[in-house]
Amino acid sequence: MKSKVSDAKKAYKMQQWIAGIVLTLGGLLVAIPFIWMILSAFKPESEVLQLTPSLWPETFTTENFVYLFENMNFGVYLRNTIIIVLCSFVGLFFNAMAGYAFAKYKFKGREKLFYLVLATMMIPGQVTMIPVYLILNQMGLTNTMAGVVLPGLVGAFSIFLFRQFMSTIPDELLEAARLDGASEFRVFMQLVLPISKPIMAVQGILTFIAGWNSFLWPLIIANDESLYTLSVGLSLLKGQYGGNFALQMAGSTFMVVPIVIIFIIFQKHIIEGYTISGMK
């Protein structure tokens, strides 16, 4: 009996080792292109094009990044992208308020309105772009930062996740706060939001990624290059400097690395948030 248990433990450890080796090799294969991109961003163009490529830069330089900001207006693109991300976080607050209302307030037509919000998730974003563009054009918001930002402030998926999470908060806890004299806004700010930290972390990361990668809508709504985002600037870089691979690597690195860093730091919150939301 003991020998069988010992053999089972050995087999389990062997399976763990094999799984670890396979996952490590898979992770390295996935990471190699990103490592190559980042290191190539610090190489001169002549070194990138040499017949015997090297992983580590022989001549370490930051001239590619300097060129992006001095000659390609990447400073303007970065400013616009940061504005979009910050405004998206304001929209995240509105989504949390809407989710809280659907979860804890009883009003006529609540369920029907919530199902209507969910139904918008089934409509591809490309379908609504033309109507939204026409509406913003009638309002005089085309080719403005407000026109770039407004359509992304509210999202049905975000409202759905907040509603699912906040519906599990005990009503007795909220009633106790109200009996202590707390206003509805104070209950939301000082009680509901702190409890909702896991789902706030998930939505915050997804909001950052969506805002940082915004490409199609800014390209459609904005005609002025001063309103373009980093993604649009990277597309322009590819068109204007298609043969300068070092410069393209620098632009891609500038786009990708912040998202990778954010994901590495907050990956635990992402997994926990999705797990909790799925359980609700």
Automatic annotation (TrEMBL):
It holds the Pfam family BPD_transp_1. PROSITE patterns: ABC_TM1. InterPro entries: MetI-like, MetI-like_sf. It comes from the Bacteria. SUPFAM superfamilies: MetI-like (SSF161098). It is a multi-pass membrane protein. It is found in: Cell membrane. Residues 77-266 form the ABC transmembrane type-1 domain. The chain crosses the membrane at residues 21-42, 77-101, 113-136, 142-162, 199-221, 241-266. This is Carbohydrate ABC transporter permease. It comes from Fictibacillus nanhaiensis.
